[in-house]
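WARN retry 2 of 3 for item q-0093 after timeout on previous attempt; input resubmitted unchanged.
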Amino acid sequence: MLGCDSVFELDGVAYGKPYEVEVAVQRWRHMRGATGILHTGHWLVDASSATRTTGSSWLGQRPGHDGELKAAGETVSTRITFGRPTDEQIRDYAESGEPLHCAGAFTLEGAAAKFIEHVDGDRESVIGVSPAALARLRAQLAPEAPPVSSGRG
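OK item q-0093 returned
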């Protein structure tokens, strides 16, 4: 099982999801022309490593696991440098709803891409999951397992 979440750091302050248009607008005004760091935590649990099993899960539908599970975690930090969108562009973006449920009030793969000048680090961790971090965590939990193939040539 893999769980990931992110927090955005700007000027030493941690920011989560803005949820409201006005919060996103204020945040973008602060981020304009600045560089911040998106920290994405990855937590991988090997559910097959349970020390014992129970007869049913908490939902009562199928057997579940109980006891100690092997797990590993890693945080990937990526620096994001923002451009200088106008107040009107910021307002339009915030009112689109896209940034309201994203740590840092932006997405690389969405409408904010045109406002991002530089990404220094793992772009995939900013979008959601770092394949490199996931491979390292998998290697920690199951060093004998063969590497995961992307299926490409």
